[in-house]
Amino acid sequence: MTEERSAAATPIPSLSSASLRWRILRQSLLPRLKPDILSQEQTKQISRKPAGGFGLISNCLVEPKQEDYTGATVGPLLSTGKKDMLVEYTLPSCRAVTIMLQQRRENSVDLKDFEISKKQEIDNTGIVCLWPSEEVMTYFCILNGDMFRNKRVLELGSGYGLAGLSIAACTDATEVLITDGNPQVVDYIQNNITANAVSFGATKVTSLLLHWSQGKVCHLGQTFDFILAADCTFFEEFHLGLALTLKSLLRLSKTSRAIFFSPRRGKSLDLFLQVVRNLDLHVKVVENYNNRIWELQNEFMEQENSSWPNYDKEHCYPLLIIISLESEFLCLSLSS
Known about the structure:
Blueprint lengths: L2 H7 L7 H13 L7 H10 L11 E5 L21 E7 L7 E7 L6 H10 L11 H12 L8 E5 L5 H9 L4 E6 L2 H13 L8 E6 L16 E5 L8 H13 L5 E6 L5 H11 L3 E5 L4 H11 L11 H4 L2 E6 L12
Parallel strand pairs: 4-5, 4-7, 5-6, 7-8
Antiparallel strand pairs: 1-2, 2-3, 8-10, 9-10
Helix pairs in contact: 2-3, 5-6, 8-9
């Protein structure tokens, strides 16, 4: 019997969810260790990370040649190392736009990333992967692109910047400012802006390192019609800083609106919204905001769609949250 057959025939012992999550963390911190069959099979039992998210935006890996891993230019002004990959996204727009993003490869987070996060007092989720809420927000914004015509848009906690870049490429926004509190992430954003500049037309696109702990953001120098954020409400320790930043931005113009996409994730979203309401901001939560996204989540719930086997609505389905200084600006005219 071959070694492979022996391993496959060996019963896999049962481990607790906590033990399995420690295995995932160990593999992330020590990526040189080859994951064994036990780790590969059992981590699937607890991982809620889908292979393709909601599948709303088609994408493909643009694999550079081996010699390009030294940092040579790959594609339009992008360079890659062993930790990075290039992903081409085909946006669901009548303009048939594609954009290229430089991202981290899966399981490439290391101790240096955690050291930077600790020093900057931020989390490092923006550098881990493209999260489903960002995908959903991108799709939503493209589908409802008319609302951004001649508007200024600010994205908070943007990660690699897919939503902000897509708005710049697919709508007639006047300006898009893409921000994050992680300096590593902002470097990725700026690289991606430079690489895709030809797709933005007359829209001004910039990046900025923005810490929510700064509270007041008057130094930005202008108002924004829309403030966007995807999955930025999970960590309770950042709730007040994010809420204060949001209020400072909304106070610059009474007609400004914030559009957040976030799963409930236990009590985290409700706790954040309570902080927001305590600051006298108005909130509207919409569960079913797009027919296709709603149908997909129902398929995942009923296990009719096998691409997300451990789907959990409370953890994975992003609600649409609209926040404004005045209640009359809570309404959006949405495309179904």
